[in-house]
Amino acid sequence: MSSTNNPLLEAKGITKYFGTITALENVNLKVHAGECLGVVGDNGAGKSTLMKVLSGLYKPSAGSLFFQGKEEILESPRDSQNLGLEMVYQDLALAGNLPIGENIFLGREPTKNLGFLKLLDFNKIKELTNAHLDKLKINVKSADQKVEELSGGQRQAVAIARSTAFNAKVVIMDEPTAALAIKEVGKVLDLINGLKKTGVGVIVISHRMDDIFTVCDRVMALFQGTNFAEASLSNTSRDEVIGWIMGKK
Amino acid sequence: MEDKDKKVESLHLKLIPYFEKYGILLLLVLMILVMHILQPDVFLSWRNVTNVFKQISWQSMLALGVFMVIVTAGIDLSVGSIMMLSLMILAVVAKAGAPWFIVVLTPLIAGFLCGVFNGLGITLLRMPHPFIMTLGTLYIFRGAGNLISGGTPISGFTDEVRYLGHGRIDLQWLGLEKSQYLPVSLVLIAIVYIIFWIFLNKSKTGKWIYAIGGNPNAARASGINVNKILIIVYSLCGFLSGIGALILAGRTDSGYPNAGLQSELDAIAACIIGGASFFGGRGTVLGVFAGVMIMGILRNGLNLMDVSSFWQQVLIGSIIVLAVYIDVLRRDIGTRK
Predict the structure, then answer these.
(1) CA–CA gap between residue A50 and residue A60 (Å, rounded)
(2) What is the pLDDT, as a whole number, of residue A2?
(3) ipTM of this complex > 0.95?
(4) Which of A10, A162, A239, B234 is the most buried (most CB within 10 A)?
(5) Residue ranges of the domains in chain B?
């Protein structure tokens, strides 16, 4: 909660057009190390588009991104991952047919050389997965379990584990509790609090005021693609934030 | 009580992957046993077994190619036509008097390029489904094959060109009789299948092929260049069809307009019987091999017993439906709802 320091990630004047539709207009956002920023807004307010710009999936039509004070241009999700910027998508973006470990390392698999062949190092994947799940206190039967055999909460935990497996500095989560049973929500929120303690900057998009008020330090509202309001959690209330979502100050 | 439940559940969890991996082999072994009982003198004879392998040799290449495509949740309907076009190009080049090592390379290059064409069409033209692109090229490639050959068979290749499809590895040095040779095509099947098993299971690209089939959005979000992988997959599928053409050239000693007609359906059937899922991400190389073998043995066995080919069609169709139904049941117990 070092809001006086330089932000880890800062977006300035982000604008995004899809054809003639303006999804985002001149949006600013920043998040610091160890801080959780909640982003709220009604459907179509531009939350998901903003997150996709931050993760490199969309290129902004205008505006710039600064990471640790340096301007960065993201051409693809790989670029943002290389910076330590990870995204947990609402649809989880896990391949159900693959085991937990292979999902966590998908696209960045460790390999070993066998002569001129570069083969996947399954032992290392398993070893690193177990160590990482232990660190986050995520319980699953085995790293070899297929993701489609997991419950919604376990999948969300795997998705979060995936996002933090490579020394992530900022993790962006799109509706991390939307698809979960109530008893699983708490576990996921605990995970987010755990991440903050390790110095990760977290951005949470959520409709659920309970989530925002449990894990976030600051909240900002988008309305029709623009910055509408922003406050630290201690200076606002649920009713006020719900008002922002509906465009009332 | 709870402990006991846990044990049962973990046994269940441990068994399912094995069943998933090797269940189809059980069916294959069962079929071999049944055929052996029905035809005890002939079926497992050296001559008949090598015959089966020779018969499935080119189909097994098409099936392997189509399998990779199916793993990405795609489909390639054009493999039979790719094989026919590659075969015709081989025949024309051979008739023009090119040296054998050029002739041997032509179907492989032609098949590969046909696959690249499919892959580029699917990704660059953003076809709504690979079905449409490859349905188009099913006609295009066969038409092209007839255009370059004039629609007539072209026969007569040199022994070097025919080696992969027709060659024999003499085993008399092992004390076997002259008739007990090993078909080169059998060795080729083994080598190609092992290479592709390693590729699909042990390489990053192979893992990504499965990931794309499981969830293309997950693959994209992981920074995988999905279009590039898809082009690679369709190109390899075309390349394998080219190998199929080379084998067929050896077996039949001719390029003919009806080569590989409807063989894309056989290839798809073998994949489905072997446990590949149309939804993508599921299936093994071993399963495809078993699927090809099951179809080959069924045809061979029914021929040995003089069963009409009409019944063969009925039986193969029934096995497809049965195999997929078993798959549905398996998935019911394997996956959380």
Answers:
(1) 9
(2) 43
(3) no
(4) B234
(5) 43-325
